[in-house]
Amino acid sequence: MKLKNIMLAGLGLTALMGATSCEDQLDVVNPNQQTTATFGASGSELDEVVTACYNRIRIEGTFARVGYLYEVVAGDEVNSYSDNDWWRPYDYCNSTSPADGPQWPFRDWYYAINTCNQALFYLENSGMDASTEAYKRAKGQALFLRGLAYYELAAYYQDIPLITTYSVKSIDDLYVSTNTQAEVLDQVEADFKEAMTLLPKKDEGGEWANGRATCGAAAGFYARALMFRHKFNEALPVLKDIIAGTYGHYELCKNYGDNFKSTIENTPESLFEIQFLDWGVGGSDMEWTPVNNSKSSSQGQALETVFSGGDFGGGWNDLGSTPWLYQTFKSQKTKDGTVDPRLYWTLISYEPDYDNMEGFENKAYTLPVTKHVTTGAHKGISICKHTTARENLYNVVAAAGLSCGVNIRLMRYSDVLLRAAECENEVNGPTQQAIDWINEVRSRANLNGLKLSDFSSKDALFEQIANVERPTEFGGEHGRFHDIIRWGWLYQADRLTQLRKHACTYWDDEAKVGLLPQTLEEANDDPFSFWKPGHEYLPVYDSYMNSNSNLKGNSANKSESNESFYNGYTIHPVVSGIGVQ
Question: Is residue 311 part of a domain?
């Protein structure tokens, strides 16, 4: 390879120069200049490396924009509403020749992994006592963040290189090979499981309660990783331990909206969240790539700009809600007969009920909302989550790009409760315990509780969890499409038809915004009809494979079906009469 030859030539030239140089040349080391040979000998320097690991998870390709949103747009809750190709191929799940965007999660997560491996390497070679709390906490954080990185990569790209070392002994070590998704997920589980034993509880307070990884975060993601491969028997006791307080105290916020405000962050409901600086607090430089290291970085996220419509100034009109998500909220009323209050914090819709609900009103960015706010070339309801739309802080989107300071709550306690209910249902069938966990989440929204007698089978309760409880609690949040993959819905005919109905649009005119088509033929757009087997994963970027012959593509590159992945797994059939279908 050309790159390899060039690097070898450079090494050869260096060796030649060293052989002919003056032997008595004075070699003086500058004590004020850090080098890779001298850095990492002290605890404070190791803390710097660990802190740098966190910085890698809050950039463009990880969670600041596309690394979060390519998963969101691929699901049945959110569609691309612009006419450009920036989001559409990933909404349709049929990209074969990726442009720049889909390489960024691959690129940026490996930046994060390299930093985590660096921290682990320095720790191992630091001479520090491995039994000290400082050592355990540094190692636990690096393992957690590496596990998170590999979980995202495996869920996005399927088969990828697994790199767990920082030391490179020869140039050939740079040309890594591809591992299977199973091998990568084995490492993910191992990293999270070890991190659970090393990290403190959130109850420790201080920085551990405000953004750093804790044993509770590791436990939550460990259970999530187990569930991806249907290891419900293993995930259930972990989730039960979280609920019991083994890994610290967690509880639901009294007000659902507190999970999405810039003014209230790191609440008792949050197991782990990505920290962003409020607009105007950080610098003004938009650092879209990880090689930028500006001291004046904005340190915000761009989800607000992507989600917001042009009605509010700087929005890019890119993504909006599907009618199905909106109608799922509208299908159930609170005990007081009003609309589910979670809709207010999920979508910018107009609801007369808001003016009669305590603390709510039909406003966004301080402006009155008199209709469903439309977005893009196709009319759709704008997404409110991860924005300041409901906080009355600004008249319009404050600044386009990486400027929003709303933290992203990557895992919430409500997710623990609903995952525990799902695992309980899978292991023991519909039980009162599963119902109780679901009702704890519903109670926060002032909804009537479910009754065990209403669910005669595992399939029925699963339908309720998957297509009512999870969409209304987590609508527009990262993780829905990863669930669709693990549930196997793309490879079962009735589920694929259901997804087509969920994800279709019906936005020809303002009068139909928020309405669900009665048939697929009536739909403006039906993203899942464009899906190609294997393309539920993002393809590995062609140029990466061209530069490294050991790097192989995945099912998307090869257009190969992944139906065999579900051999031995239960794919629940559609149960009619539950939710909006």
Answer: yes
Residue 359 contacts by C-beta under 8 Å, 6 or more apart in sequence?
255
Q: Is 398 in the same domain as 415?
A: no
Other C-beta atoms lying within 10 Å of the C-beta of residue 403 = 24
177 DSSP assignment = P
CA-CA distance, 545 to 553, in Å (whole number)? Answer: 7
Residue 339 inside a domain? The answer is yes
568, 449: one domain: no
- Matching residue, tokens 């091998």: 183
Rounded Cα distance between 342 and 258, Å, is 11
Contact 43, 134 (CB under 8 A): yes
* 368: its two tokens: 């009155």
Q: Phi, psi (5° rounding) for residue 407?
A: -65, 150
Is residue 375 pLDDT above 80, yes or no? no
| Residues 45, 179 within the same domain | yes
Asked which of 109-123, 271-285, 354-368, 499-513 is least confident by mean pLDDT, the reply is 499-513
Question: How far, CA to CA in Å, does 216 sit from each of 220, 251, 259, 272, 274?
Answer: 6, 12, 18, 8, 15
Q: Tell me the H-state helices in 175-268.
A: 181-198, 215-228, 232-244
- In DSSP terms, which residues pair with 525 in a beta bridge? 505
Q: How confident is the model at residue 280 (pLDDT cuts 50, 70, 90)?
A: confident
Domain end among 408, 430, 461? 408
Q: Once rounded to an integer, what is the mean pLDDT over residues 272-287?
A: 86
Instruction: Clarify whether residues 348 and 480 are in a common domain.
Output: no
Specify the CATH number for the domain of residue 115: 1.25.40.390
- DSSP E strands: which ranges in 390-442? 408-412
Q: What is the largest CA-CA distance in the chain?
A: 88
pLDDT given for residue 518 in this prediction: 76
Number of domains into which the chain is organized: 3
> Contact at 8 Å (CB) between 385 and 307?
yes
Q: Is the domain of 565 the same as that of 469?
A: no
CA distances from 556 to 207, 440, 539, 541 (A): 41, 40, 5, 11
The DSSP-derived string for 514-581 is TPPPSSGGG-SB-GGGG--TTTTSPPPPHHHHHH-TT----HHHHT---GGGGTT---PPP-TTSS--
Tell whether 335 and 247 lie within a shared domain. no
**Integer Cα distance of 558 and 547 in angstroms:** 18
| Domain assignment of residue 309, given as a range | 298-408
Q: Kindly report the pTM of this predicted structure.
A: 0.92
**pLDDT, position 172:** 82
Distance CA 503, CA 578 (A): 17
In a domain, 204, yes or no: no
CA-atom Rg of the chain in angstroms: 24
The pLDDT tens digits of the residues spanning 343-359 come to 999 999 999 999 989 88
442 to 396, 437, 463: CA distances (angstroms): 32, 9, 16
Residues 22-49 have pLDDT tens digits of 445 555 556 555 665 666 666 677 888 8
What's the Cα-to-Cα distance from 238 to each of 143, 196, 218, 227, 538, rounded to whole Å? Answer: 18, 10, 10, 11, 30
